[in-house]
Amino acid sequence: MWASDSKGEDGKDKRFVIIFGMKLIRGDDLGVSVQMREGMNFEAIGLDVIAAHEAGHVVLAHYYGRKVYGAYLQTRPLNLRDRGERSHVRYAPTPHIQEVHLNLGKLHERWSLAVRETLVTTRICLAGPIAQAIYQQKPYREMAGGQDYRDALSGLLLLERLRLSLPQPQHLDISYKHENILDSLANDILTLLTARDYSNYLQLIAQHLLAKQELSAQQISEMLEAMPRHQWHPE
Known about the structure:
By secondary structure, the chain is an alpha+beta fold. It has a single domain, classed as Methane Monooxygenase Hydroxylase, Chain G, domain 1, CATH 1.20.58. It is 44% helix and 13% strand. It has helices at residues 47-63, 107-136, 147-164, 181-194, 196-212, 217-223; strands spanning 2-4, 16-20, 23-28, 31-34, 68-72, 88-91, 214-216. The strands form 2 sheets. Strands 1-2-3-4 form a 4-stranded antiparallel sheet. The protein starts with a strand and ends in a 12-residue tail after the last helix.
């Protein structure tokens, strides 16, 4: 569930609450405060689990046509104060956001693209914990998403802040604020990643990440070249 006091358009402070499974996330505009289970204890889980998690980000990004620049698996346990590089996936940021203000004559067209691509980024963020849940055979709501959930929330809050800065924001699409948006996106991801075509690629990326610890954009592209990708239909 996503709830808002809907007071932003008259200049009052905004408060958002998102409930995703059992995780409560709060955000004041872009000053994000998060309440959730602690992130993954990387010393307590195996590298295979972390590889599965990162593979979820890779597969979803590629599926939606978002450029993946690389993936990295940290094989050495790190504590919270350690400055060592953590496991991660690097992919292109949300497109179209910067274009919304450039031509207000095409505002609705550009806004639709901004909403669409922000929700793609949200899916990519959620795909890590969901891929991990699939690998560990656990309900995805039991996964502690940590930074992934923070990133997902930040993107949605940024989109809402952008909407409120535009002319007549009440006429713009706010489907991203639907009360069940995160659970709806999560269920779609779960369905996709458990389908045979995509589960095989998920395993392929995880296995190669385990073997090599780092994958380049070219290696990822070659491994996923034959994977069916999402096709956007004209509205």
